[in-house]
Structure formats: structure tokens, C-alpha cells
UniProtKB/TrEMBL annotation:
SUPFAM superfamilies in UniProt: RbsD-like (SSF102546)
Described function: Catalyzes the interconversion of beta-pyran and beta-furan forms of D-ribose.
Gene source species: Biomaibacter acetigenes
InterPro entries tied to this protein: D-ribose_pyranase (IPR023064), RbsD-like_sf (IPR023750), RbsD_FucU (IPR007721)
A GO molecular function held by the record: intramolecular lyase activity
Pathway(s) it belongs to: Carbohydrate metabolism; D-ribose degradation; D-ribose 5-phosphate from beta-D-ribopyranose: step 1/2
Assembly and oligomerization: Homodecamer.
Cellular component aspect of the GO annotation: cytosol
UniProt EC number: 5.4.99.62
Protein name in the entry: D-ribose pyranase
Gene Ontology annotations of biological process type: D-ribose catabolic process
Keyword terms: Carbohydrate metabolism, Cytoplasm, Isomerase
Entry binding sites for substrate: D28, H98, Y120, S121, N122
Amino acid sequence: MKKGGILNKRLNEVIASLGHMDTIVICDAGLPIPDENQRVDLAFEPGTPGQIQVLKAVLNEVVVEKVIMAEESKKVSPEMHEEILKLLGDKEIEYVPHTEFKERSKKSKAIIRTGEFTPYSNVMLVCGCAY
């Protein structure tokens, strides 16, 4: 049995497959996920698991060199936006319109769906290199 960290088998498989410059999306329950994308559906009920909880766990496992977020997050969900920024520390952040975020997410290695109901709380992580 694994000692700790992320226990979800599917999510562990996705994380282990990531390479430099691959992207993964951690999204709220409402983001449309194209059938072509790998989907890791963690949503259980509204709010469970939450965006922050999942983001924190993934950040502990993945080298991230850049984060992409919807421009709208700053105005529509400022509290969530601030919580996300606290977790990200000094990582580079690129803001794009939500429509562009959805288009870019189609090219992600996987989309991880949470039970989050806060609008525009989605984040795209651009993987870095550990060496």
C-alpha cells in the first residue's frame, strides 16, 4: 500500500506519464471536457473534493514551471483566485480569456475534474523539468 500522497490510481498514472511542457488541467465541476481528453473525475458531490485540496496535492507531486488561468477568475471569483495564488508562490502565471482557456485545455494530457462549484477556478499546469 502507498504510504501517502495521492492515492487515486488513475491520477497517479497521469502524473507518472507527464513530461516537460506537458499540461494538465485541474477544473471545477462545470468545465466541459472533450471526449478526446483523458479525464480523471474526482468529483463526488458539490464541493468535494475542492479545487484547493486537489491543486495542493498535485503541486506536491508535479514540477510546474508555469500556470495558465482565465482572466475572468480575478473578477468573478476573487477569493478563490487569491487562494490559488497563495498555493502557487512565485510560479509564472499567464492569464487568458476563458474561451481560450477551454480551447487550450483540449490539448492537455489530462483534465482532472473536482467537485468545485466556484466559477472560473480552473488552472492549467505546464510541467517543468526536475533536473
